[in-house]
Write a structure and sequence with these properties.
Elements: H1 9-13, H2 15-31, H3 41-50, H4 54-64, H5 70-82, H6 92-96, H7 106-132, H8 135-147, H9 149-155, H10 161-183, H11 190-205, H12 211-224, H13 239-257, H14 261-267, H15 285-295, H16 307-324, H17 330-346, H18 362-386
Helix pairs in contact: 2-7, 2-8, 3-5, 4-14, 7-8, 7-9, 7-10, 7-18, 8-18, 10-11, 10-12, 11-13, 12-17, 16-18, 17-18
Length: 394
């Protein structure tokens, strides 16, 4: 869908300036009191693992933590690069409980990567939404993303949610570019896109196992839309070869993860769930998760905002959600709902429906709701034009 430059000319002309303002607002909200916020138990554990040597970390993960190692390794080398003196401290509690001391306090340094990942993701959300829709939807999506209390909270933690969110979006964005080139028989830069897809997806798998759900929705999309890759005239690449090329990428990704399988099998014996999630998923879990993506309050119980304010928040969510249902692309629907529904169905076997595990769905959620916000704003602008409050040329 192309932007109509004759309409909304003012918005189109200043879209980059508006986007830069959104980025600055987003950065301010994520840096605000980043060092002062309380430290919760999973952050202590993250620092404890990050203080270990790589070999000690792998041994610890095989018996104490049901997650892959990439984020812990990243924090380990991040501390070595930015502030090696942290390794001289006695414990993770001593580091995490240290009093804030300006921009270079331990809490700030340890939480900074999450904020950076969040801001980079915001930039990619704008690019992806622009690719799928237009600049109006892209700006609306970034507004949803930047103001989300859920995303802000997890961007300010010494944990993996912001990293898996970024890697999930990179993988999905590159998957879509790969798909577009296959569909159009355009094989320019195909190798670069495929390499980027492989690296981001494998990195995602080494960050959180739910990255397999990203691969699942991508394959669902690919085979639902398989008729669109019918070979055009003059192309020597048949649909079968295109399918085999995609399957080859999936095989390479799986091979890249095989090195972790021995430790993964050991982690199956870990029975404790190191997470704050829904005790028992019910039919309300999915809509409640989507609501909390915007208006989450607190940590241990994810208590929604209550009272009149809570009623207003829920009304805003419901209003935007209704407007968002129509007009979204299939890739956004699948990205958002396939992982959530699959995990919900599997929860009867094991408690898997943990809300921050779905951070890789959040960019799709922001775009999904951004479509609704753009429609609402467009209706509002048309109302102003109808009453001659503003001119149509704007």
């Amino acid at each position: 869908m192309k932007d109509n430059k004759n309409q909304n000319a003012l918005l189109y002309r200043y879209r980059i300036i508006i986007f830069i303002i959104i980025v600055f607002v987003s950065a301010f909200l994520r840096f605000y009191h980043i060092s002062d916020r309380f430290v919760y138990i999973d952050e202590y554990k993250a620092v404890e693992f990050a203080l270990m040597s790589p070999s000690e970390l792998l041994n610890a993960l095989s018996s104490r933590e049901p997650h892959p190692p990439l984020h812990y390794l990243f924090i380990h080398y991040w501390m070595k690069m930015v502030k090696p003196s942290l390794f001289e401290w006695k414990s993770s509690s001593e580091i995490s409980d240290s009093e804030p001391q300006g921009l270079f306090s331990p809490r700030f340094i340890l939480r900074l990567p999450g904020v950076i990942f969040s801001i980079v993701t915001l930039i990619l959300v704008y690019g992806f939404a622009s690719k799928l829709y237009n600049c109006r939807v892209a700006l609306a999506s970034t507004i949803i993303f930047s103001l989300s209390r859920f995303e802000i909270f997890w961007a300010q933690t010494i944990r993996y949610p912001s990293l898996i969110m970024l890697l999930g979006l990179i993988s999905t964005y590159l998957f879509y570019l790969f798909w577009e080139k296959l569909k159009g028989n355009d094989f320019s830069k195909m190798v670069i896109i495929a390499l980027g897809y492989i690296l981001s997806t494998v990195a995602g798998l080494y960050t959180h196992y739910y990255m397999f759900l990203v691969m699942l929705f991508q394959n669902v999309y690919f085979f639902i839309k398989i008729k669109d890759i019918a070979s055009k005239g003059g192309s020597r690449t048949t649909p079968t070869r295109k399918i085999l090329l995609w399957l080859l990428l999936q095989i390479i990704v799986v091979i890249g993860f095989l090195f972790w399988l021995p430790i993964l099998f050991k982690q199956f014996s870990i029975t404790a769930t190191y997470s704050y999630g829904v005790a028992h998923s019910t039919l309300s879990s999915i809509p409640l998760l989507l609501y909390r993506f915007l208006f989450m309050y607190g940590l241990q119980t994810y208590t929604p905002v209550g009272g009149i304010l809570g009623f207003i928040c829920f009304g805003v969510f419901a209003f935007l959600f209704i407007f968002s249902i129509k007009g979204n692309r299939l890739i956004i629907y699948l990205n958002l709902f396939v992982p959530i529904i699959v995990v919900f169905l599997l929860t009867s076997l094991k408690q898997l429906f943990v809300e921050h595990y779905f951070m890789f769905c959040f960019p799709a959620y922001a775009i999904f709701m951004g479509v609704g916000l753009e429609k609402v704003l467009r209706l509002f602008v048309n109302l102003l034009i109808r009453h001659r409050i503003i001119f149509k040329e704007m």
